[in-house]
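// run 5 | inverse folding | seed 20
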């Protein structure tokens, strides 16, 4: 009997499809009201740069209005805390309090994302790049040192203050300025680095159809307990299904997700 040899690419695709089904099941268990059907996950691929249909124009206008109002109010209310955090970062390690990094926004447009600096200045990111590459291309993605958590544990680049900021996600607060400027939204996929986007499968580029956000579907569905490909699958689901109902449910679930420290990135 002649044995049929399955090409490596086909084997990899089958493995990734299985992982996608697992991600859907995990989302359904963690947040049943946010989960979509497997049939929805297999919907036709939208071309990169595709805009939401005209009937969603009202949603987009209201979403932008909410982004402006909430980000402006939060920046005013949190100004004392922002100044204290900036001082703590500046006084405990050499370098600026803010970290600026070019990220990929909607339709692949680059923008400068703001964060409180949580790492030592001029730290080598080779280990991080190698780990992210493994998460994106390997069939069995490695954990980062903690079983079931897909992030680098005990990263030597992170400062003591940075550990606290990352654990509580306070390092992300300056991104409220990005939201106010229209470069990000309150809800959407997290903004990626250009070299990460280059490693995406074609279907994962659909996450670039919408503005990146402070919080999103994968953040409230497992955070770092999901593999990167599972997280990207959830981002694609959000890009295909975004609307007021889903946005509000994600926003309501975000505080509880932030309290789950083991999944913090």
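// decoded
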């Amino acid at each position: 009997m002649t044995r049929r040899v399955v090409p490596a690419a086909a084997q990899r695709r089958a493995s990734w499809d299985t992982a996608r089904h697992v991600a859907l099941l995990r989302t359904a268990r963690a947040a049943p009201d946010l989960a979509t059907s497997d049939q929805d996950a297999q919907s036709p691929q939208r071309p990169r740069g595709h805009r939401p249909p005209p009937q969603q124009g009202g949603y987009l206008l209201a979403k932008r209005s909410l982004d402006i109002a909430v980000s402006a109010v939060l920046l005013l209310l949190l100004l004392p805390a922002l100044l204290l955090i900036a001082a703590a970062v500046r006084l405990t390690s050499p370098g600026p309090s803010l970290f600026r990094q070019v990220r990929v926004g909607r339709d692949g447009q680059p923008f400068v994302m703001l964060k409180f600096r949580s790492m030592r200045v001029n730290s080598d990111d080779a280990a991080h790049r190698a780990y992210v590459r493994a998460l994106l291309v390997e069939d069995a993605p490695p954990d980062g040192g903690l079983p079931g958590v897909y992030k680098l544990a005990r990263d030597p680049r992170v400062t003591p203050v940075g550990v606290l900021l990352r654990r509580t996600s306070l390092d992300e607060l300056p991104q409220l300025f990005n939201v106010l400027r229209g470069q990000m939204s309150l809800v959407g996929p997290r903004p990626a680095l250009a070299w990460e986007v280059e490693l995406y499968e074609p279907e994962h580029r659909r996450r670039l159809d919408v503005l990146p956000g402070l919080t999103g579907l994968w953040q409230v569905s497992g955070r770092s307990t999901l593999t990167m490909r599972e997280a990207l699958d959830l981002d694609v689901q959000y890009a295909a299904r975004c609307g007021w109902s889903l946005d509000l449910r994600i926003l309501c679930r975000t505080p509880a997700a932030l309290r789950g420290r083991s999944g913090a990135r």
